[in-house]
Amino acid sequence: METAPTRYEALQQVAARYPSQQAMADAFGVSQPTIWRWLNQAKQIPPTFVLLAESLTGISRHHLRPDIYPPEIPAAPARFCGVDHTAPLVAFNRVAALRDGALRDGAPA
Known about the structure:
mainly alpha, YdaS family helix-turn-helix protein, Lambda_DNA-bd_dom_sf, YdaS_toxin-like
């Protein structure tokens, strides 16, 4: 049975996708010393870069930061579908909604 990589091993896999630390820094929009600090001091990717790393390299967010993205949480859909317009209307200020005619007989207009 194969075990999941550690945070550091996942970060190393991300770095291996680039020919140099400078190339990785350019892709992430940070400086090369920042990449060096991730690899040699923090040994994990900062939370603000996890989703970018996943989209650029395909390495799972669950492996990069399991403390933030536990494996049992399903991945978000690839495309945000927007607001559910089939949900019933919610009137937070029912008195004002009745007064303004937004609700008739207690039901949405």
